[in-house]
Write a structure and sequence with these properties.
The complex is a heterodimer of chains A (about 350) and B (about 325).
Chain A (H helix, E strand, L loop, with lengths): L2 H5 L2 H23 L6 H26 L7 H18 L5 H24 L5 H20 L11 H5 L4 E5 L2 E4 H19 L1 H11 L1 H6 L4 H27 L10 H11 L11 H20 L7 H34 L9 H7 L2
Antiparallel strand pairs in A: 1-2
Helix pairs in contact in A: 2-13, 3-8, 3-11, 3-12, 3-13, 4-5, 4-6, 4-11, 5-6, 5-11, 8-9, 9-11, 12-13
Chain B lengths: L1 H27 L6 H10 L1 H15 L7 H17 L4 H25 L4 H20 L3 E3 L3 H8 L8 H19 L1 H11 L1 H6 L4 H27 L1 E3 L6 H11 L11 H20 L4 H33 L1
The chains are: A mainly alpha (about 350), B mainly alpha (about 325).
Chain lengths: ~350, ~325
């Protein structure tokens, strides 16, 4: 077993290869599109990644536990609209209170999903397919199909999308992008080092075993749905700050984009493997493709067709490459395992034990 | 035996809901059970309920097909473009149907042969096939089809029924016989219950899955063409978002999302419940999104209530002993 195989797991190579793919894509697009390496390109991509990225973190946690959350688009729409209407009603509201309220509202909606999945044992795809419709219906009903417009919102909210916290060379890092980035860092560390984070992986890898060794199965499933809801609430707030004008259609169809980002990011749809960083890289990849194909102009109508093909290729290559790597790693482990009898090659087994 | 009892109670539940909904609608309007209104009832979502039939088989086999609405769109758009290019209508219909079959087989190849999760593959299909439809038609709208084509979707040619409704009933019988009266149907259930065991028992899992996805694509294309015939024109965003409604119909019918259980009678009842419920809410001036949210609530309750009943029953028994 060489140094590389001891230090790096096959799953990490997957994220590395996605990163290489992103660099490759940027290089190709950079040579095709004039003025590609400018801050404008970065801004556009960052803008499109921010919302999908934030929701994608929550979705990753849910998918890791072998569930799925299809209601995120409706939760984003609900929080964006209702918090927008609230702020438009009283402009004097404390900014921090508004953000916390958005997160809390999303968390409550996620908690409803969580209770139904964890304790009532209704399959998550049924629950969230139902709440996808219910939350959207509630939004359309309660709003009376009115629109939140940017001229009713206070200045601090609209400026939030334009504030730059950090400028590195030509690249300006905005406040909203920073929020998304810090969430990725927090949840990546959380899922890697916290006990609850590791338990989430255990649940998705083998639910029966996780239950048998006494992990707080239901509480954790409930928790991931609450987190997914809360992050969707945060994304709703980000959407409000970015667009200013929010209709009842806000966030419709977002769930499919988010699931696509998570799948491209190498999170296994059957749970137990993948990471927050991977899902974010998936979102970045989709964002780059979307914005770059838009800039190429001729391909405007080809964009979705290519996107679909790319998702398929990502999933396929992922499955093939990962399987190869796992067998390679498995063989290497067999060779060096201490105190074990020397490995018997598959072909000789049948001969020695007839 | 217990499973059989629960299955029966599920359809009993759906039947009870159906009776209540129809009774309420009849009270609201005396013309409700007239043949005109019933034909209308089916006609308004005929494309979705046609696709729900093949979706039942896909879900029973433990897979899912999210790309059906996009295949509907692709077939309808392709038909429009070929017609505009001067190709005779029957040939255009044939090519559109074949495109749906090809799209379904493409999904099926990746699921069956490459062993990828169908959720991911058909999600890619959902985005990709819709994109392909947009490539063909861009942002135009194509109409002015020959009269006989529009007649298929709009006129009541078979007695009081339209051809679309007749096609639905024929397909319903075909799916019912395939699923419940043929060896192939038993194999589909076997695959849904335990793919590995089915494979070891010599079932040709890959071939059957490939066929199921092919059939799903073909029927989706047919539904897309009928939708184009009913609307009289096609656009790039035709049938967008239908997949969720279709899957809701199947799951409300008691088909397990994990595969291996459920039957076509349940799906038929759930289709009737949803159609009557939507029509009734329409009579009461309740609009689109609220209708959808009521159906969503019904979907959750349909799994939640039997689950709770089961839990209560076991708790009750434990206390007794």
């Amino acid at each position: 077993m060489n140094w590389l195989q001891r230090r790096v797991r096959p799953e990490q190579i997957r994220e590395l290869s996605l990163l290489l793919l992103i660099i490759l894509a940027v290089t190709i697009f950079g040579s095709l599109i004039p003025y590609y390496y400018t801050s404008r390109t970065f801004d556009r991509i960052a803008e499109s990644v921010t919302i999908i990225g934030i929701v994608g973190i929550g979705q990753t946690l849910v998918v890791l536990t072998r569930n799925i959350d299809l209601s995120v688009g409706s939760i984003v729409g609900c929080t964006a609209y209702f918090i927008g209407a609230l702020i438009a009603g009283n402009n004097g509201i404390n900014p921090l209170a508004a953000i916390l309220l958005a997160i809390a509202m999303g968390a409550v909606m996620g908690a409803i999903n969580g209770v139904l999945v964890a304790w009532a044992r209704v399959p998550s795809i049924i629950v969230t397919l139902g709440t996808l419709a219910i939350y959207r219906g509630t939004l359309v009903d309660l709003s009376g199909a009115r629109t939140v417009t940017s001229d009713t919102l206070p200045g601090w909210l609209l400026n939030l999308a334009r504030v730059n916290l950090l400028t590195i060379g030509m690249v300006r890092i905005g406040a909203l992008f920073t929020i998304a980035l810090s969430m990725v860092v927090i949840f990546q560390i959380g899922t890697t080092y916290l006990r609850a984070g590791r338990c989430i992986y255990a649940i998705g890898s083998n639910p029966d075993a996780a239950l048998l060794i006494g992990l707080p199965f239901r509480r954790l499933v409930f928790l991931v749905f609450v987190i997914s809801g809360a992050l969707s609430g945060l994304a709703g707030f980000v959407m409000l700050a970015r667009f200013g004008n929010i209709t009842v259609e806000a966030g419709r169809g977002l769930e499919l984009e988010v699931v696509a980002a998570v799948v491209v990011g190498g999170v296994n749809i059957f749970g137990g493997s993948g990471s927050v960083v991977g899902a974010t890289l998936g979102a970045v990849m989709l964002g780059i493709l979307e914005q770059s194909l838009l800039r190429l102009q001729i391909s405007e109508f080809w964009r979705d067709a290519l996107l679909g093909l790319l998702i398929l290729l990502a999933v396929a290559s992922d499955a093939v490459i990962l399987q190869r790597l796992r067998t390679l790693w498995g063989r290497a482990e067999l060779k060096v395992a201490p105190g074990m009898p020397p490995p018997v090659p598959e072909t000789e087994k049948g001969v020695t034990n007839p | 035996m217990i499973a059989l009892g629960r299955l029966k109670s599920w359809e009993g539940l759906l039947l009870a809901i159906l009776v209540v909904v129809v009774a309420m609608n009849v009270m609201r309007s005396p013309y409700y059970l007239g043949i005109d209104n019933i034909v209308n009832l089916f006609q308004l979502s005929i494309e979705k309920i046609i696709v729900a039939l093949t979706m039942t088989m896909i879900i029973v086999s433990g897979e899912i097909d999210l790309s059906v609405a996009s295949i509907m769109g692709l077939a309808a758009v392709l038909l429009g473009c070929l017609f505009k290019a001067g190709i005779p209508m029957p040939a255009a219909i044939l090519i559109a149907l074949l495109s749906g079959l090809a799209a379904g087989l493409f999904n099926g190849f990746w699921v069956a042969q490459a062993g990828l999760p169908s959720l991911a593959v058909t999600l890619a299909g959902l985005i990709g096939y819709r994109g392909l439809a947009r490539v063909f038609i861009q942002d135009h709208s194509i109409g002015g089809f020959p009269g006989w084509f529009n007649t298929i979707g709009q006129q009541r040619t078979v007695g009081p029924l339209t051809i679309s409704i007749v096609i639905f009933f024929i397909l319903f019988v075909i799916v019912a016989v395939t699923l419940h009266g043929s060896g192939l149907g038993r194999l589909v259930y076997a695959i849904g219950n335990n793919t590995q065991a089915a494979r070891y028992a010599g079932v040709r899992v890959k071939l059957i899955k490939l066929c199921l996805f092919g059939a799903s694509g073909l029927v989706a294309a047919l539904a897309g063409i009928l939708y184009g015939a009913r609307l009289g024109s096609v656009r790039g965003d035709i049938a967008t978002g239908f997949e969720l409604d279709i899957i809701t119909m199947v799951l409300l019918g008691g088909v397990s999302i994990f595969g291996g259980s459920g039957n076509i009678i349940g799906v038929g009842l759930s289709i009737l419940v949803i159609l009557n419920l939507r029509n009734g809410m329409g009579l009461a001036n309740i609009t689109g999104d609220t209708q959808t949210s009521v159906v969503g609530a019904l979907l959750i309750l349909s799994v939640l209530v039997p689950n709770l009943m089961h839990t209560l029953k076991t708790k009750w028994k434990e206390r007794k002993t």
